[in-house]
Amino acid sequence: MYTLILAGGKGTRLWPLSRELMPKQFIRFFNCSSLFQMTVRRALLLSSPDEIYVVANREYRFRVLDDLSGIGVKVPEDNILLEPRGKNTLPAIYWGVKTVSERNGRSKILVLPSDHYIDPNEDYVRAVREGEEIADEYIITFGVKPTRPHTGYGYIKPGEKLKVGFRVDEFKEKPDEERAKIYMNQGYLWNSGMFLFDTDLFMEEVRRAIPSVAEAFSSSDPEGAYESVPDISIDKGLMERTDKAAVIPLNVSWSDLGSFNSLYEILRKDDMGNAVKVNSRDGSYIQLRSSGNLIITERLTAIVGVRDLVIVDTGDALLVADREEDQGVREVYEELVRRGDERALDHRTVYRPWGSYTVLENGDRYKVKRLTLLPGRRLSLQRHYNRSEHWVVVRGTAKIIIDGEERVLRPGESTFIPMGSVHRLENPGKIDLEVIEVQIGDYLGEDDIERLDDYKR
């Protein structure tokens, strides 16, 4: 069986934790693994690494590769399909399915979102294996048995009993609380966003239900396809239009993590019902007479006499919200986009193909960064026209090229890069290289760069 992992979502409802260039599927909410890594491990229960395909935004290429490397899973790089722009789930799935079909012939394929939380117990594997029995005839979705009347999820009404599972009688949008109680009492299921089907059946049903999607991908050029393909979800574009939709009940712990309240429900609580996650060595937490709060912080955070709040501190942004109002977080993100605020785009720590950088201070005509280069990685060969730079090595060994001259620096040693000089920084060692960079100039934007060679960006 093939598994197609969807990794293109932006996760705007979890700002400031998630940003456009660091969406929630790559965030480590639980232990040391990202949601994407957890999804890959779940895929390995049913597929080999060669049978795993990923569809992601092209901006996430190196995040995908680094996350795969971090768990030692070698998915072939040509199995990673990079969207030039997001057009929702149906185009992403169709492109992935078409690619699997062209390379491997008629196949069964499991589709998994990478930004959901799921505990893959024995019932999970059983449900998928049983679904294979009817995947030639039906496009299967998996419906999670509700544990409470949730207003943040879509619902599925099971209909006629099949050999395995049920026909889908109806899809329902997110209800209010009273309607959610009715759905739960009548045996409705949460819509999990996971699918299983035969590749030929799926493409045939897409051609019938929404031919513009199939027509867009009739050529082998994804750039052209994404120019013309409609922006539409698989639920709206296919599942609500086909008469071959089936649902298999799934009895697992699941959440789409579509809000901070969803995250609060999953995280471990203290005796007062506070869920706390500290995201740095400098972070800590004190609570006095406070209950029911979600606290995610990188600094010392103290709360006194507060209840049912979301408090998220990421160093460059602070969110405080009533837990029941957390659906409004997306409005905050949209306002930041409207203002052109770069904090909608990325964190103070920004991940690059070579590692990451953290902006420590941003002043008038100067900026201070901490660069972290992974072993064997290097920056592009580059120059800047509006700034000079000082580099001080604080950890590891640095190989530096400035205008063709190469030298090696060790901790405590430094160098100066004049404005306009062609330069490169490389980590030839076995441990991370850490460098403090001080930029000085009239313009310090990230777009003041001429790359003479890079990572095929």
Protein described:
The relative contact order is 0.11. Helix 3 packs across helix 6. This protein has 11 helices and 28 strands. It has a 6-stranded antiparallel sheet, with no helix packed on it. Strands 6-9-7-8-10 form a 5-stranded mixed β-barrel. A 4-stranded mixed sheet has the order 12-14-16-17, with helices on one face. A hairpin with a 2-residue loop joins strand 23 (398-402) and strand 24 (405-409). It folds into 3 domains: 2-255, Spore Coat Polysaccharide Biosynthesis Protein SpsA, Chain A (Alpha-Beta Complex); 260-336, no CATH class; 349-453, Jelly Rolls, CATH 2.60.120. The mean pLDDT is 93. Helices cover 22% and strands 34% of the residues. The radius of gyration is 24 Å and the shape is globular. It has helices at residues 35-43, 61-70, 89-104, 122-131, 177-185, 199-209, 211-216, 222-228, 234-239, 260-266, 329-339, and strands at residues 2-7, 52-57, 80-83, 108-113, 117-118, 139-144, 155-161, 166-172, 189-198, 245-250, 254-255, 275-278, 284-288, 294-297, 300-304, 309-313, 318-322, 349-352, 355-363, 366-373, 381-383, 387-395, 398-402, 405-409, 414-417, 423-426, 433-441, 450-453. It has 457 residues and is an alpha+beta fold.
Main features:
22% helix; 11 helices; 3 domains; 5-stranded mixed barrel; alpha+beta; Jelly Rolls; single chain; 34% strand; 6-stranded antiparallel sheet; Spore Coat Polysaccharide Biosynthesis Protein SpsA, Chain A; 28 strands; 457 residues
